[in-house]
Amino acid sequence: MPVQLSENARKQLDEALDAYPQKGKPGTVVGIVNKEGQMIYLRSAGAKNAVTGEKLEDDTIFWIASCTKMITGIAAMQLVEKGLISLDEPVSKFVPELADIRVITDSTPTTLETRKANTPITLRMLLTHTSGWGYSWYNHHILNWVKQNDNEVNGHGFWCELNNKTDEPLVNEPGTKWEYGINMDWAGITVERVSGQKLGDYFIDNIFKPLGIDDSYFDFKTRPDLLKRLSPMHKWDAESDTYSIRDFPHLLVDTPNHRGGGGLHTTAKSYLTVVSVLLNKGKGPNGVQILKPETVEYMFKDHCENIQDKGGLGTHAVVKSTDPSRANTDLEMLAGTKKGWGLSFLLNTEDIPNGRKAFSAEWGGVANLFWMADPTSQVGMIVFNEVLPYGFPEFFKMEEQLQHIVYADGGLVQE
């Protein structure tokens, strides 16, 4: 029988969301899906626009930032299934720009020293963040590179760094260290080169349409009718705990780069539909198989188990923020829990007490978003917000409440 949310758990979640809205602060959307793709909980609370007070709706469209990465991973593995690319051949075969990539050996705000990488980058490295790239908000070498390459550190520079990524050097020798960076943007480019399609078109033809999803896009050039459902981006001032509306930080019409690492817009329900595919061995709620069961099983294995330097995957590792304007907190993933990395997402490799089971997947997005898929418990969940920088307290509190309620005794039932 399908897993459902108990009435007591539903009541507790309702109470948490009833208490969530605060004047002058943005709202949130919380959702839970089961293996069969049923939305066993989906509710919005609070304001879509913290300044005007416009109400957030369940079908609000969010820019989902790095939650895009998991869908890019699915796309890449579809191509692997078809034999069009392998996980361990050099991706420079399809993306020649990566044949002569360089590695930063030292830097200051005004100087940069590099050497040529010795190891070819593979698709497996891209999907596991072991290619050698970093993000400027977690790596001072990349922050220095940004400063030296006419990419402002604030404002539009946030997006310039990602949209002009073809020049960005590595910070580690490929295959030697886990470090969070623009790897999945290159995975998206690889999907484009192998498939011959723009990434958003590939998503539509091979993931969204087969699953019955029609509101998920990198840009809205063909669907301007959806713009009215789009959440604005909020700017959070941590010192005063106030929120304003910032210019929407990415192009919405005819976006030149469909970034596999963070460019997609979608709704909570549509994203949960994709999450259910991971729970149900590659099968969507409508019965369509978009990945083979053995592919999904392989994606949930720890592909960083034998990496030389686990970096932020260490049990007690903390990745320090180098730019509070983008990441207001350090990156500490599942503190005290043994971790690994599957093919495009974080894994806890042991059960979390009173929480998810071993080899559950999760990740999030810099605009304070979170997703999780627990195949053993047969549930997935999301918390979606549209706030920068990352790390505002209400998001972390809601994410913690959600998991506490769902995994409490009697939180999930089979009916």
From TrEMBL:
It comes from the Eukaryota. Residues 14-384 form the Beta-lactamase-related domain. PANTHER family: BETA-LACTAMASE FAMILY PROTEIN (AFU_ORTHOLOGUE AFUA_5G07500) (PTHR43283:SF3), BETA-LACTAMASE-RELATED (PTHR43283). This is Beta-lactamase-related domain-containing protein.
